[in-house]
UniProtKB/TrEMBL annotation:
This is Methylenetetrahydrofolate reductase (NAD(P)H). Pathway: One-carbon metabolism; tetrahydrofolate interconversion. PANTHER family: METHYLENETETRAHYDROFOLATE REDUCTASE, METHYLENETETRAHYDROFOLATE REDUCTASE (NADPH). GO terms for molecular function: FAD binding; methylenetetrahydrofolate reductase [NAD(P)H] activity.
Length: 185
């Protein structure tokens, strides 16, 4: 009986706006933010972002959005690394900035499918912890029809048990935020 309108956001700018010239990139990034504001002003109620692997870039994007008057929820797009080849193709296609530390960790295990998947779950869990701790209102998982990594991340966050029937993790996210508030009070 009710639906919402979500719009796409690009923490590192739209792939078509990414370029080598720093001045041009800064201009393109600002134009992308203005366009995003227009989408929200036209009725968008939340932003779901393109995938990223640098939490700092996402947090800067949120700050930049707030600075131009975008106040709606911004959901980070998380794509767990499922395979080395798929990860490299997707990040290349989307022009995603990948921190060197991630590339250095993947290089020696790139041919070990199980090790890459385990690292993807570990990395995704760490990113999500940082995002939840920073106050993100939720998470959007790009599962690509591969639910095991998403379930592994949710388990790593303590939101589900892989040994029990699955439940809606939303109440657990709220409980986690409340526990963090109490711990820092």
């Amino acid at each position: 009986d009710h639906f919402g309108i979500g719009v796409a956001g690009y923490p590192e700018a739209h792939p078509d706006a990414i370029c080598e010239d720093p001045e041009q990139f800064a201009k393109n990034y600002q134009e992308e933010l203005v366009y995003l504001k227009k989408k929200i002003d036209a009725g968008g109620q939340m932003i779901v972002t393109q995938l990223f692997y640098d939490v700092g870039n996402f947090l800067k994007f949120v700050k930049d959005c707030r600075n131009i008057g975008i106040e709606c929820p911004i959901l980070p797009g998380i794509m767990p690394i499922q395979s080395y080849g798929g990860f490299m193709r997707m990040t290349g296609f989307c022009k995603t900035k990948v921190p060197q530390e991630i590339l250095d960790t993947l290089e020696p295990i790139k041919d070990n499918v199980d090790a890459v998947k385990a690292y993807g779950i570990h990395l995704g869990t760490q990113m999500c912890k940082q995002l939840i701790d920073a106050g993100t209102p939720g998470l959007h998982m790009y599962s690509l029809n591969q639910d095991k990594a998403v379930l592994g991340i949710l388990s790593g966050l303590g939101l589900i048990s892989l040994e029990e029937p699955q439940k809606n993790p939303t109440p657990a996210i709220e409980e986690h935020k409340e526990e963090d508030k109490k711990a820092t009070a």
